[in-house]
Design a protein that fits this description.
It contains no helices and five strands. A five-stranded antiparallel β-sheet has the order 1-2-3-4-5, with no helix packed on it. A hairpin with a 5-residue loop joins strand 3 and strand 4.
Length: 73
């Protein structure tokens, strides 16, 4: 199982941004909810997850994150 990390999210009037006191992400960068996916293992177990993209101020992708809604096997 991979380690858990804290991505602080700040909701402003018109967007999401990386907040302070997290152990991943760069404070102030924009966050976009990219997609909702269903992943399947070889034994047909499924995990649903949200893909989040962190964008640097010049519209380049800084990082992408997978937020599973149940434990990934």
């Amino acid at each position: 199982m991979s380690p858990r990390r804290i991505l602080p999210v700040v909701l402003s009037d018109d967007s999401l941004h990386v907040g302070t006191n997290g152990d991943t992400g760069t404070e102030g960068n924009a966050l976009f909810l990219d997609s909702y996916v269903t992943l399947m293992t070889q034994n047909t177990d499924t995990v649903e997850a949200l893909l989040i993209v962190e964008v640097y101020e010049h519209d380049s992708i800084e990082n992408s994150y997978v937020m599973p809604f149940s434990p990934m096997v």
